[in-house]
Amino acid sequence: SEIDEDHISTLKDIGLKIVQKCGCLPIAVKVMGGLLRERGGLHRDWQQVLDDSKWATTKMPNELNHTVYLSYEYMPSYLKQCFLYYSLLPKSRIFTKDEVVAMWISEGFIHGNSNDLEELGENYYKELVSRNLIEPDKSYVDLWVCSMHDVVRSFAQYMTKDEALVTQDGDNDILAKLGSQKFLRLSIETNRSQSGELDWKSLQGQQSVRTLISTVQIKMKPGDSLVIFSSLRTLHIESADVASLVESLHQLKHMRYLALVNVDISVLPGNIGKMKLLQFLDLGGCTKLVNLPDSIVKLDQLRLLSLPIECMVPRGFSGLTNMRRLLQFRAHLDGDWCSLDELGPLSQLRVLVLTELENVSAASFAANARLSEKMHLISLLLYCTSKLGDDGLVKEKEGVSEEEQQRIEKVLDKLCPPPGLEYLHIKGYFGRQLPSWMMSTSMVPLDNLNTLLIDDLACCTQLPNGLCQLPNLQLLQVRRAPCIKHVGTGFLQVASASFPRLNKLSLGGMVEWEEWEWEEQVQAMRRLEKLVLNNCRLRHFPPGLASNASSLKILILVHVKHLSYIESFPSVVELIVNGCPDLERITNLPNLQKLTIMYCPKLKVLERIASLERLVLKDYTMEKLPEYMRDIKPRHLQLFCRLWLLSAVVAGQSGTEWDKFSQVEHVKAYARDGDNERKWYVLYTRGDNYKLDSNISSSAIFEETLSSCMVDPQGFESVYKMRRSTFSYICGLVRLPFLEDMMARDHTFVDGRVMSLQDRVATAVRMLISGEPPVVVGSSLGVNESTVSLVTQRFIEAIQERAFRHLDWPYNFQAMEKIKCRFDKIHGLPNCCGVVHRAYFKFGSPNLDHEENADTLMQAVVDPDMRFTNIWFGASSSMNQSSLLHDSWLFKSCEKGTLLDGTKLKVSDGSDIGEYIIGDAGYPPRPWLLTPYQLEGDISDSKVEFNKRHSAATAMALRALERLKDTWKCLQGEGWHPNNQNDLRCTINTCCRLHNIVIDMEEEGAVMLSNQEENCIEQVSQLLDEDAVKVRDVLSQHLVDSRGKITQLLSVHFIFLSLPLIPSFTYFVSPHICCRGGTRSTPTTNNRSREIIHKQKIDSPRK
Predict the structure, then answer these.
(1) Which phi and psi (to 5°) does residue 686 adopt?
(2) Is 50 helix (H, G, I), strand (E, B) or coil?
(3) Alpha-carbon distance 673 to 741, whole Å?
(4) What is the pTM of this model?
């Protein structure tokens, strides 16, 4: 308002003077801002702070900040001790708000009614945030995690130096400090740059200590005990073998807070019930602890209990009526262990986390928990074990029955929270619809709910309708809901404004979600500031989003498939798009100031974004800057790209990219080397005399000729097993990554000459072909052994990166039809798509230390020209054929019907034959995997013929694998040995790609089809999507036109649609019909498929 503006102007001059006194240090200015906010907004309040004599205090060392001291002096006494205590917490570990408040309570810093201690402590915590003395971590909600700036921490630790010691295990004088002074509080944390241990004996002189916080490895000896620390009230200990200490826990009469994190204990002592004053017990890191002792129920002062994931609680738990926070309570019903019904009397609960709710056998147990009666409950987390896999889909082996769905729906219906709930998290729920109290706010008016998180909804098909009327909901997050395909009008209600206070909406992992209905006239989400969409198939934004979400500032889109444009969001100031493969344009974002684009290869248009200040562009695959750079003029550009593109940028005006970035005021461009994303840089500042700074050379010229030492007198082809033209093609494939490598590091011959690109490729190919150790290959080429190994490793990485299309499943229709055509032409197997076989690769000698590096098992699919179209490595070299197949991507895809789902053959008796592959008798027969007949008893001519052709095709696959090993002798494992299993698999993969490249480049007859075959395939592919009647008419005419060519077409395979075509091989066959699309049908049995194929061949008359 105008009044506010006038008031601010009166404080401006004095505010600037205060900023100058802060030394313009940002953290000091923030702390001062927090102090002034607490003091009030009047001019005299600010003047009093400015004139305070404490600015000039000489009590502190010069390196400490006087602004923090001034803020501390103005702090109320109750807050000072909480502030100083916070500085003791190790920086290397996250401490949550609840943990910090619990420690304050344990130390007696929080005074008040016992019922309100946590609430009062939370208010203290928020006041420290308000004063900017601790800073919230924005990746957590509700101030759950904060941190303290080093400047503030240094001051606070100075103020506590007489009674507290904060040190790291790497400090040289830690033992001297412990021996020279008695402390009330000790905080010892791990120094990540060093690895050390602390002897428990060195701590025993600190007998008056009240708080011990340790995140270091402490060396224990038999007999070590906690008894000497009789005054200990707070103990937080991590990464220690504390089994000997645990036995003496019961003797710590004053202990209030006990946290055992990542400690190796499997039992707690039975006498732990003697710790009568214990209020906070955190066992969440004791992963081996399975059962709690019976005496745990005697700890009637417990306010917090955090349990390990697998831990069981004994019966009698209902007596712990002081419990405020109960975390990881398992809903188990076996034996003498506590069940949900014992939660009924715990009326003081504020936070409750229930897990494994799928184990509740009846809704009555859930009802007995009486959650709706717990009027103090503000946070509720309801967890089931997730039914979803890593891909976000329901695990095949864990399908959900209708009975299971109905049971979990009834259970959650009875876990209805009280109306005062503020935070709700549901995870792993597998009912078809969410609980009724979520679908309708009339049942339970959750008017205070501000945060709702829903994860892993295996079976829900819609978002709950009632959420839009929650008056205080600020954060809604849904992650991993694979059955939701459509967000309809029910999500928003027309009657009144929906989601009136929603500030952040995040929808992720809804992998099948394609449509979002929201009409412009439906008012909703007026306060929405941040929208995150992740891993979905949303095709476009609903009209109502841009027109209603007038407060939307941040829009984040990650892996949103099918979305082709983003436009008309007038309020958005920051946009992040990452991995959106179909995004083509971004337009009409008039207030957009920051734009981040990562891996969006189809993006071509950036228009009407006049306010753009900062562009971040990240893509390590692009080889040139996008063309849209010419159309925009941001002030700042931050570029993360590959080294090759960076070298084009550093070329400046003489480079190819100059006109795409020269208009930008400041450019910071980086290329990575390993994990270092900023190893190579270019810094550019625009101007008449522009500045261009870089740590790479812009004048590097690389020789690309092959040195004479690389060519053997026997001839090029005899050494490299390929033509010179094929070698040149491979050099072209890896040229870009190899040139990048040449920029980054020099590889030379032993005489000092720099190796050219072709020299490096030749060295790597010699390594793979010869199979000899690097020292032998290097000696023959005049190259050091280490250089040979490095160049070979880089070559393998480059082939993996650049030659991916040379080992890829033929998804393209025409490519697959060519394969089927040649299988029929060569082997008489119509509609066959490949031969599956396995190969065993053994590396290393019997003395190899690491057996896991010694060998591996590979499954390969081979096409009729002996190319590999798919390979899969077994998890173990001892797997048999069947288990290897079942583990493979091929098997899982075929069983789902997403592979081998193309054209089908329909024969005269009406049976269908889908696409298939063949394999030997070691494989399990499937409708898509045909194995040979067993030769037992009388076997028909058609079966004999099938086995004959099956055997010929299988032998071809075996020859392909033999040729692979014979050509690329590194796979024989007698000389060179990869370092590990991953390197071994990458090497095999690279050799398979090179094997395919040689076939593609040199065996033209294997890849070229006759004109008649090409024409046939082309016509059929054109006809597939046309009307069935028209297809028949066109094809009939085609047959009439082709009648005169019967003789020359007898050896050519045709694809048949609806009407008879000319048969293949040497027989006439009954009419076949090719069908595409529709429901995938498979032959009823494997044998039936085999019989259909060859009965048609054998029973037909010869020409």
Answers:
(1) -70, 150
(2) helix
(3) 10
(4) 0.73
